[in-house]
Amino acid sequence: MYVKTVRKAIIPAAGLGTRFLPATKAMPKEMLPIVDKPTIQYIVEEAIESGIEDIIIVTGKGKRAIEDHFDHAFELEQALLKSNKHDLLEKVKEPSKVDIHYIRQKEPKGLGHAVWCARKFIGDEPFAVLLGDDIVQAETPCLKQLMNEFEQTRSSVIGVKQVADDETHRYGIIDPIDKKGRRYQVRQFVEKPAPGTAPSNLAIMGRYILTPEIFLFLEKQEAGTGGEIQLTDAIQKLNEIQRVFAYEFEGKRYDVGEKLGFIQTTIEFGLQNEEMREELLKFMEEIIRQYAKS
């Protein structure tokens, strides 16, 4: 039974971003912008809005741009100040107000290994993990919803959402036993089940509250699906010694880990921007007319 609150968060950002090549040959996929903000900034902002105090980003080779983004840009800030572009200055300074730590994953061994790399930063506390492939818009931040559940259960809580049956093979899937409100008791966590074999359509969506015992299983460095050390496999083993719940969080989830989802998210976020909404709608209408004729 844990009495400590969740104060720390891990954001894994060491992946190669192969789905977005060649764009990610020299630029981290986490720095690809949704309108005018890199995807990783949406994730960091969710953590801060949820009450997280310390963030560690697990990076890899070629990810220096992430550290630069969350650092001060003195020359740029001075140029904006001299030009009286105060609104832009505030936007530029916002990311550097966050206290972020970094550690490098020296080998691409999978998500589970990336989380394990941050074990010394976490210590013996419960902690959060946020993945950058999913952006969630919600009245109460997605991570905060899970933190609220942790406060009630004092157990690990995994964020889930329903997906189409023909997409379950792309995700970690839960096998639910019982449901109380939006919280599920889970029999089993299955990483990317073969098509037609998923125990449900409730998919793990990149938000986790985990107890430090997870490191007991990540320490063993056992490879799973794809030859990588899978976090879902370790969660299932944790579930065998202590309760791990799933929580179907409220809010709209955007998949920015795939090209189509990334484009769809960019369009919708553009439409949410009052300055560009009208012109963007006109452009979309014209494009639809052009392609309807072809």
User: How much helix, percentage-wise, in residues?
Assistant: 25-40%
Q: Order of helices and strands, N to C?
A: EEEHEHHHEHHEEHEEEEHHEEHH
Structural class: alpha/beta
Query: Strand share of the residues?
Result: 15-25%
Strand order of the biggest β-sheet: 5-4-1-6-11-8-12-10-9
Name the poorly predicted regions: none
Kindly give the count of domains: 2
Q: CATH topology of the largest domain, what is it called?
A: Spore Coat Polysaccharide Biosynthesis Protein SpsA, Chain A
The CATH superfamily of the largest domain is identified as: Spore Coat Polysaccharide Biosynthesis Protein SpsA, Chain A
CATH architecture term of the largest domain: Alpha-Beta Complex
Regarding CATH, which class of the largest domain? Alpha Beta
Question: Can you characterise this structure?
Answer:
The chain has helices at residues 39-49, 64-69, 74-82, 86-93, 111-117, 119-122, 142-153, 214-218, 231-239, 259-272, 277-293, and strands at residues 8-13, 33-34, 37-38, 54-59, 100-104, 127-130, 134-137, 156-162, 172-180, 183-191, 202-210, 244-248, 252-255. α3 packs antiparallel against α4 (86-93) and α10 (259-272) crosses α11. It starts with 7 loop residues before the first strand and ends with a helix. It has two domains: 8-254, Spore Coat Polysaccharide Biosynthesis Protein SpsA, Chain A, CATH 3.90.550.10; 258-294, no CATH class. It contains eleven helices and 13 strands. The chain is 35% helix and 24% strand. A nine-stranded mixed sheet has the order 5-4-1-6-11-8-12-10-9, with helices on both faces. A two-stranded antiparallel ribbon has the order 2-3. A two-stranded antiparallel sheet has the order 7-13. The longest helix is centred in the C-terminal third of the chain and has 17 residues, at 277-293. It is globular. The model has no long low-confidence stretch (mean pLDDT 89). The protein is an alpha/beta fold and 294 residues long.
